Structure of Cytidylate kinase:
Amino acid sequence: MPTSTIPVITIDGPTASGKGTVAHKVAEHLGFHLLDSGALYRLTALQAIRRDTSLTDEHALAKLAEHLHISFTGDAVFLSHENVTDAIRQENVGNTASKIAAFPAVRQALYGVQLGFRKAPGLVADGRDMGTVIFPNASMKVFLTASVQARAERRYKQLIAKGFSANMEDLLMDLKARDDRDTNRAIAPLVPAEGAHVLDTSEMTVEAAVAQVLQWHAAIGKS
Ligand code: DC
């Protein structure tokens, strides 16, 4: 199957919108591969923090991104054979990821890595620019969103469940700052792709959101 004909479903949206969980379940249901593109930015951020790389040195950060030894096994993420699944989910790593993601050279370094995930029988790709920049010819595009309050509550529960400490007010502030950075950056900003289905999940269960995405997918080519 030529790569360009392999189906891709893109699921973009702001942080803690539930897109990761929805993407995971949709991929599982369809037997598709999964690309968690945020993890790539988080891995670069984690490496930068560990190596004490200046967060304003675009060139050095891009070099780090280019030379990451990454592997995904089921739900686990490995950096040079170390399991960093939990480490990359910490708030400081997410915030750093959002900062370094504004650099064009970092995005360029991760571009080819992301395209490499497009394998038969199909791919569900989750991130910020999956439908706008990385897979503009995707078979279906979704933009998943939720109110900032709903997202902060979800993130709070996730962090507590993982045994991390969390504070609602700090989380709200961080989410707003990240939304602002991700939406207003000059390159690949967070915006719904043209033709994307927009889904507000503030009042929706994960199951309902997954069912809606699967229904849209099933309807492709039928109208
Ligand atoms: O989805 P996430 O919260 O794991 O992503 C972490 C950060 O990475 C996010 O704040 C912005 C950046 N990111 C990006 O710029 N483009 C993507 N496709 C995915 C994530």
